[in-house]
Amino acid sequence: MCEKCNELDKKIEHYKAIQSRVTDRTTLDGIAELIAQLLARKADLHPETKQ
User: Is residue 40 part of a domain?
Assistant: First the structure.
């Protein structure tokens, strides 16, 4: 995996850790959106691995 993907994975894991400790629905929705954006960015880096 490339370095950019590793950085994105770290950010995703960070947001997931926060997500597990938060109960506010608006915050959870925002975190889910951030995670989706990071996953999309990761997919854009390697379009040949999209499923």
Answer: yes
